[in-house]
Amino acid sequence: MKVDLIETVDRYNHFMTQKDKISDGVDGCIRNRPKAFENYPFYIFAHKRTVESDERIALFNQHLTDWILNPSNPRQWHKIEDVPTSRMIWSVRLTKPEPQENSMLFKAYPPGDTIKIFWIIPAQSEWDQYTKGNLTESSIVYESIQKFRDNPRELLKGEKDDLPKEKIKDIYRNIALYEYRKR
């Protein structure tokens, strides 16, 4: 087998960058969780969504305007094709969401820094990249894919340390009242 070293290094660097982005996303969710969550365990759900062309154009135009007004800011995108076509949406929640492709689910246990990984499920077109023997091999991703493919209901089961439904309703009600009063 002939290995293209440049492509291999590029893939490895991309993989390492992804790990950093995941860590930053989880940390941001922990720091910015609603005060009403107090120190209860909570889920961190991330899912990939497409950035439609109209939004990409708006992002590019805003970035260009910002750069024109302040040329000391570095240019991120030099042409519309450079604007990302997708983004990760990070959210905190007290209940488990349904598993889906292009998603990750973690559980945080404040006030400490314990994080439990439930799944990391890439797009189906990428599943083969995470099998044993590949540079991007990952047992967590591989197991998540297997569970998602074979028995997705198992991924949806609640946890023993989940809050009771009534407590969850109270917390969300308090958040809604707080937001309503801010207006």
Keywords for this entry:
183 residues; alpha+beta; 4-stranded antiparallel β-sheet; 5 helices
Structure write-up:
The chain is 43% helix and 17% strand. It has a four-stranded antiparallel beta sheet with strand order 2-1-3-4. It is an alpha+beta fold.
List the SSEs and their pairings.
Layout lengths: L4 H27 L10 E9 L2 H17 L16 E8 L9 E7 L4 E8 L17 H12 L1 H5 L8 H18 L1
Antiparallel strand pairs: 1-2, 1-3, 3-4
Give me a quick take on this structure.
The chain is an alpha+beta fold and 183 residues long. It has five helices and four strands; from the N terminus they run αβαβββααα. It is 43% helix and 17% strand.
Structural class: alpha+beta
For the sheet with most strands, the description reads: 4 strands, antiparallel
For this structure, the quaternary state is single chain
Strand and helix order: HEHEEEHHH
Helix content range of the residues, please? 40-55%
Radius of gyration: 20 Å
Q: Using the alpha-carbon principal axes, give the shape.
A: globular
Mean pLDDT: 87
Query: What percent of residues are in strands?
Result: 15-25%
How do the strands of the widest beta sheet line up side by side?
2-1-3-4
User: How many individual helices?
Assistant: 5
Using DSSP, what is the number of strands? 4
**Uncertain stretches of 5 or more adjacent residues:** none
Q: Distance between termini?
A: 63 Å
Domain tally: 1
